[in-house]
Structure formats: structure tokens, C-alpha cells
């Protein structure tokens, strides 16, 4: 009997030892109450930033810079995940996805905002911006603040205005005078003002997403389009278009927007870090948009694949006169306060 008790004790002792040896580290970890690595991951804030443009454009590069700056300024507490080229959403779906909280940031062209918030149409008016100085005055002044205030009721918060550059027109025939547009099928960013602009010139506007543009030109579904030099170059539109007029008739810009509820729930120090990162990324964008368009215009001229016409002062005056009805059409929906600000902008010269 004594032998049996002794044997049983030895077996139990062995089992206890095995438990301690085999599972001791886990038991000790349980006493700590958490896994440091997993807690670090669970505390990380993820911002999904969806956009529709290529990474090598002013907007694409600026978003990547912003993402890196946020990581640095928050010591990795915030990760901005970037989804370019309509990977997650197109222009038609990204705003709804932002408001639903599926994504946290977008940077839509002004036209997409004006379709739901009429005041934003002011930024698509032809020849609104007559110089780079005008662009900076509008983005950083009262007009920009009025427009950002209009986003608040839609659970959106404007963080910055970014530029891609002045728009030019391309086609397979020269578009020099307003009469040259008659009957031309031109791809546009869907928007009421842009559509009215080309209908005023008796052209036929065709709305589409940016990713469809090259194939539409290559297959002849449209005759031409309007775009920045950087988009013409990076998307290789010069391969499917013979002529470009440097008209600077409009400006392609973006509003960088974050979901307002998401923003309000961020800690104050995180908000501050994101704001600082956005300020630096915006300065980078402003410089990059100008320099990239200048450089790529030279490259297009050297390439010789397109005939590039620089609009003269007389031609510019003819375009402005021909497009004045667009101002008259949209002034009521844009509202007198903003239209007065635009008149003051133009009277400064």
C-alpha cells in the first residue's frame, strides 16, 4: 500500500512539473494580463484614404507624403492606408462611403461636391482663376472657408485644398477659337458647370470616370477632353490625342475631406498631429503641382507627339466672352455672397 501511495505521489508530482515547465510562460503571461504586441495593434488608429488618381500625379504623391508624415508625427499610432486608382471606390461611390464610415478620407474633384452642394460649383466656373495667385487667394481665404463650412451638415470636414493644375483642352483637331468646339464630343468630369461650359460652346460633353478616359479616346468614343498637363503626361493621353491648347480655362483641384464624426472622436493630440501633417503635405502639393506641370509641358514639347498651341490674349478674351453665360446660369444657385467675392477677386487686377 505504501508503495502504491508513493508511486501515485511521484506521478502527480511529474504532472505538476510538466504543467509548470510546459505552460509556465503562458501562465506568467496571463498574470501580466495582456500581450504587448497585440495591445499595440488594437490601439492603432487606421485611416483609409481612397482616391481615383494614379500614384505618380501631384495628388497621388501628396497623399503618400501625408501618409508618411502622419506615421512620423504620431509615432506609428495612426496608419493612413492609401487606396489609389479607384481600388476601393470610384468618384460616384467614395462620398457615400465616407459618410457611412466605410472609409475615413477622400480627395474628390470640386465637380463631385458641387453635384450635391451647389455652392461648390463656384470653383468650376471657367476662368475663375486667372493666375496661380488667384488659386492661392481662393483656397486660403474667405471663399475657401465658406465652402468648407458647407461640408459640415453632410458629416464631412474639409482639411485642405490641393491643386493638380490648370486645365487644358486636347483633341484630334485644333481647338483654338470657341467656334472650333461645335459638334466635338468631349469627355468631362461629371459636373453641372463643366457640362454647361461645353454645351455653351456647342460641344457634346460626355461624363465618365477618369480610369475610362484613355480607352474612350483610343476607341474614338470621344474626340477630346480637358485635363491638366500632368494628367495628360502621366496617363499618356498624348498617344491618342494630336492637339493640345494651353488655355488655362479652368482649374483641377481637390478638397481633402475627413469624416466629421470620425475626426471629432480622435484624441486632441492626434488631431493636432494630423493637422500638422496636412499643412506640410499641402505645401508640398502646391509646389509639386506647379513644378510637375511645367516640367511635363517641356517634355511634351520635346516629344513632338502633340501639336501644342499657346492661347493668345485675343483668343483668351474670346473664350471668356463666349463662356459668360455659364456665370449667368449658375450665379443664383451659387449665391450672391460667393459671387460677390468672385467679382472682388477679378477686380483686383
Note down, in words, how this protein is organized.
There is one protein chain. The model is unreliable at 18-41 (pLDDT under 50). Helix content is 52%, strand content 18%. With 349 residues, it is an alpha/beta fold. The protein has 15 helices and nine strands. Strands 1, 2, 3, 4, 5, 6, 7, 8 and 9 form a nine-stranded mixed beta sheet that branches. The longest helix is centred in the C-terminal third of the chain and has 36 residues, at 268-303.
**Fraction of helical residues:** 40-55%
Total beta strands: 9
Oligomer: single chain
| Low-confidence runs of at least 5 consecutive residues | 18-41
Report Rg.
Answer: 28 Å
Biggest sheet descriptor: 9 strands, mixed
Secondary-structure element order, N to C:
HHEHEHEHHHEEHEHEHEHHEHHH
Tally of helical segments: 15
Strand content: 15-25%
What is the averaged pLDDT score?
89
Principal-axes shape call = globular
Amino acid at each position: 500500500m505504501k508503495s502504491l501511495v508513493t508511486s501515485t505521489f511521484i506521478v502527480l508530482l511529474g504532472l505538476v512539473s510538466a504543467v509548470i515547465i510546459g505552460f509556465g510562460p503562458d501562465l506568467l503571461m496571463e498574470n501580466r494580463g495582456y500581450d504587448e504586441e497585440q495591445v499595440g495593434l488594437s490601439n492603432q488608429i487606421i485611416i483609409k484614404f481612397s482616391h481615383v488618381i494614379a500614384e505618380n500625379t501631384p495628388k497621388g504623391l501628396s497623399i503618400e507624403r501625408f501618409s508618411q508624415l502622419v506615421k512620423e508625427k504620431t509615432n506609428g499610432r495612426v496608419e493612413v492606408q492609401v487606396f489609389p486608382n479607384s481600388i476601393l471606390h470610384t468618384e460616384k461611390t467614395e462620398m457615400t462611403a465616407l459618410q457611412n464610415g466605410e472609409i475615413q478620407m477622400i480627395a474628390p474633384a470640386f465637380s463631385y461636391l458641387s453635384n450635391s452642394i451647389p455652392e461648390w460649383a463656384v470653383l468650376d466656373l471657367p476662368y475663375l482663376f486667372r493666375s496661380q495667385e488667384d488659386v492661392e487667394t481662393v483656397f486660403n481665404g474667405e471663399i475657401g472657408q465658406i465652402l468648407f463650412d458647407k461640408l459640415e451638415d453632410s458629416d464631412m470636414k474639409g482639411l485642405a485644398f490641393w491643386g493638380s493644375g490648370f486645365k487644358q483642352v486636347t483633341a484630334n483637331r485644333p481647338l483654338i477659337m470657341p467656334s472650333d468646339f461645335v459638334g466635338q464630343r468631349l469627355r468631362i468630369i461629371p459636373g453641372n458647370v463643366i457640362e454647361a461650359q461645353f454645351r455653351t460652346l456647342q460641344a457634346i460633353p460626355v461624363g465618365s470616370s477618369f480610369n475610362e478616359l484613355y480607352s474612350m479616346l483610343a476607341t474614338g468614343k470621344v474626340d477630346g477632353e480637358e485635363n491638366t498637363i500632368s494628367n495628360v503626361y502621366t496617363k499618356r493621353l498624348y498617344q491618342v490625342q494630336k492637339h493640345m491648347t494651353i488655355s488655362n480655362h479652368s482649374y483641377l483641384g481637390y478638397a481633402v475631406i475627413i469624416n466629421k464624426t470620425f475626426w471629432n472622436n480622435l484624441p486632441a493630440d492626434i488631431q493636432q498631429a494630423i493637422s500638422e501633417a496636412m499643412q506640410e503635405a499641402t505645401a508640398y502639393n502646391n509646389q509639386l503641382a506647379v513644378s510637375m506641370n511645367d516640367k511635363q509641358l517641356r517634355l511634351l514639347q520635346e516629344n513632338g507627339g502633340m501639336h501644342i498651341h499657346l492661347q493668345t490674349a485675343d483668343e483668351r478674351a474670346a473664350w471668356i466672352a463666349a463662356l459668360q453665360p455659364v456665370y449667368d446660369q449658375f450665379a443664383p444657385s451659387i449665391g450672391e455672397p460667393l459671387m460677390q467675392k468672385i467679382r472682388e477677386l477679378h477686380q483686383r487686377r
